[in-house]
Amino acid sequence: MRRLIQITLTALAVLIAPSLNSLSSLGHAAPLPSSAAPTSYVTDWAHLLPAGLYDFIPAEGMTASDWADPEFQEKILAAERKIRPELDKAMIMLPGYMVPLVYEGLDVFEFLLVPSAGQCIHVPPPPVNQTIYVALEAPTRMRTYGEPVIVQGQVRTLGAVTEYAETGYRIIADEVIDFSFDELEARTSSIEAKIE
Fold first, then answer.
1. Is 134 within 8 Å of 151 (Cβ atoms)?
2. 86, 137, 172, 195: least CB-packed within 10 angstroms?
3. Residue 131's beta-bridge partner residues?
């Protein structure tokens, strides 16, 4: 039953993410400006998804028979594990929510970065390709599960298995800051200016 709930949440995320994200369309990651050289940047959760990842989902939506079809469910499970190997060593600046893994008091040394509040805590974890293990050289302040952060650093395509979830990516973080729309917009604009 838990697995069916996770598959349902994954499919719902796939269907509603485009409406929340102006940089991508269903199943198609927003393109990086160049190959994933160290100067390329990931600035959106959609960048982590391979192009055409969910093309098997009917454009008119899913039916009860789709959900009941074991082959369809296997396609969903396989899709959520696919990553983009070409992003290895790309720079990343991504907003998300902290799920602390290694901490001492209020100092956090390792955490999961997830796209929505409460994932891995109150609901099943997000797909592997939407869960990121973050390692820090210096600790950051612990945030509650509802406090978003912005993480900046280098992404690696090495997964990790933790007590809460399996991840498809890692970030060697240079910086973890509190989220604000102004800060996110300023940093994204700065990155886009560097790319052009």
1. yes
2. 137
3. none
β-bridge mates for residue 169, sequence order: 132
Q: Model pTM? A: 0.76
In angstroms, the CA 73 to CA 148 distance is 31
The ranges assigned to domains in the chain are 1-196
* Residue owning tokens 């298995």: 161
Condensed to tens digits (0 to 9), the pLDDT of residues 33-72 reads 334 333 378 889 999 999 899 999 988 988 999 989 999 9
CB 43 within 8 A of CB 188: yes
**Which segment of 25-34, 107-116, 144-153 scores lowest on mean pLDDT?**
25-34
Residue at 162: amino acid letter: T
- Two tokens, residue 161: 């298995």
Fold held by 1-196: OB fold (Dihydrolipoamide Acetyltransferase, E2P) (2.40.50)
Q: Are 159 and 108 in contact (CB under 8 A)?
A: no
